[in-house]
Design a protein that fits this description.
Nucleotidyltransferase, domain 5, alpha/beta, 8 strands, 3 domains, 14% strand, 11 helices, six-stranded mixed β-sheet
């Protein structure tokens, strides 16, 4: 029986006289070349990126911020958020190897770049929107606005409201008082201690409760000084938000998307637990980004607010949002409800 024939492959141990150029691994139509070209047009020093000035001191030189920006944008495009995963891509992904020109920054370098250049990265986003405007990629007539909750690196239990802190302090006061009563009763009972029935850990329990009480009081004072409604022990910007009966410790992220190529033209991160106060601010950002002060805005029922609609109308914006159904105002029997008028 004749052997089956397969397509020819190259031997891994074959020595090549002229090895292929790194540029040959990325086609001329590959989107990664657009990232490289876009970053090449930016004035990184004017945008505020670190390590852009001339430096001739001792020590190992820093990575080019343009290289790290290219890697960051590639990860954003391909939904690779982890710095460790981006580091792994520099070792195995031919597109990333081409984009970074063989450089392999560590995950800490990538994470520090993102942390130390937040304002510059935000300015880069604005430059990208302006570039899209110049290339006529943005629609200048209509945008859709929506929001989503993003989880913070903080447990919901680490975020406290005023009512919750008062409740926790009251509970701690009651526990401490109960432990002290237990000690008083033990001192007053002449038979106590004869059978060795005392709790050796009672004093430690009281000390732990007092420590918790002091910590909660410090949080309460911090909350009163800030004037906010919530305070987080871990992430100062995180807030407890509820949607569909579920609590999330995080942020409310807003975006405005144009109707032509579905590009994000404006974004914001707020601490409000609902979207009813975000319609006018997002429309204003979208109008500034597209250069059209009379944009048409579309949003879901969560953005319904008479005050917000009035502000948009005063600014010349044409906005649309569904009217919420007033379920609690239905008429009884044959009576008419408010929605019937």
């Amino acid at each position: 029986m004749p052997e089956r024939r397969y397509r020819e492959v190259q031997s891994r141990s074959q020595v090549m006289l002229l090895p292929p150029c790194l540029d040959d691994y990325v086609s001329e139509h590959n989107p990664v070349r657009a990232i490289d070209a876009f970053v090449g047009t930016l004035d990184l020093e004017a945008l505020g990126f670190q390590n852009t000035e001339a430096h001739y001191g001792a020590g190992q030189p820093a990575y080019d911020p343009g290289l790290l920006l290219r890697l960051y944008l590639y990860g954003y495009q391909h939904r690779v958020r982890s710095s460790r995963r981006l580091e792994a891509e520099t070792h195995r992904n031919l597109e990333v190897i081409w984009l970074c020109q063989g450089a392999r920054p560590s995950y800490k370098t990538i994470a520090d770049f993102r942390k130390d250049n937040l304002a510059a990265l935000r300015a880069t986003n604005r430059e990208f929107v302006l570039l899209c405007r110049e290339l006529s990629l943005l629609g200048d007539s209509r945008v859709a606005i929506d929001g989503t909750f993003l989880k913070a690196n903080a447990r919901p239990a680490s975020i406290h409201t005023r009512a919750r802190l008062e409740k926790e302090l009251k509970r701690l006061d009651e526990k401490i008082a109960a432990y002290h009563r237990q000690l008083d009763e033990a001192d007053a009972d002449p038979k106590d201690g004869a059978d060795g029935g005392e709790d050796p850990e009672l004093a430690a329990k009281i000390e732990a409760m007092v420590k918790k009480q002091k910590h909660r009081k410090a949080l309460q004072e911090r909350l009163l000084e800030s004037g906010e409604s919530q305070v987080s022990e871990v992430d100062p910007d995180a807030r407890t938000m509820k949607k569909y009966g579920k609590s999330v410790g995080g942020y409310n992220c807003q975006i405005a998307v144009d109707d032509k190529h579905k590009l994000i033209v404006a974004e914001d991160v707020v601490q409000d637990g609902n979207d009813s106060g975000q319609y006018e601010p997002m429309m204003t950002k979208a109008c500034e980004a597209t250069g059209n002060p009379g944009l048409i805005g579309l949003a879901d029922v969560g953005y319904w607010s008479g005050a917000q609609l009035k502000e948009c109308e005063d600014r010349g914006m044409d906005v649309y949002v569904p009217i919420p159904t007033q379920l609690g105002r239905k008429g009884k029997g044959d009576r008419f409800s408010n929605d019937d008028f």
